[in-house]
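Protocol step 4 of 6: structure prediction from sequence.
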Amino acid sequence: MQATIRRAMAMTARINRLTYDDADQVRSLFSELIGQPVDDGFLLIPPFYTTGGPDMRVGRNVFINQNCTFYDLGGLDIGDDVMIGPNVSIITSGHPLAPSQRRTAVVAKPIVIGRNAWIGAGATIIGGVTIGENAVIAAGSVVTKDVPADTLVGGNPAEVIRSIAE
């Protein structure tokens, strides 16, 4: 795990030296980071932070705004056409609650973000959550449980506000 973190820190430092106008280089480095190519529709605006990379899968036409943090140790699957706002934290790992175990163990659970979801600015998504297709996560929300498809959720903890089915 330490080697993966070191590698991710070095790669993200390289990404974070780039600008919005360096989209091709960002795509290339991000592809190297996750170990698979991203398509030409992928756009990430630095800065960006992660402790992993290899446990991340990114679909087609994904947009990631600036200052996002992805901890993907538990696995992160981002579907096609997903938009992620600035300052979003996607955190698949944490530590046990017991004080005696906090520094000796890591608990990791996957996060799945369905096709065409929109994650609003400053949202936090916690491990073990699946976000349904077309769902919208309101800005500043803390998502601690699954989000149904075609819904708007918001708050802390995030709750369904209403359906957005067309």
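Step 5 (inspection) to follow. The mean pLDDT is 95.
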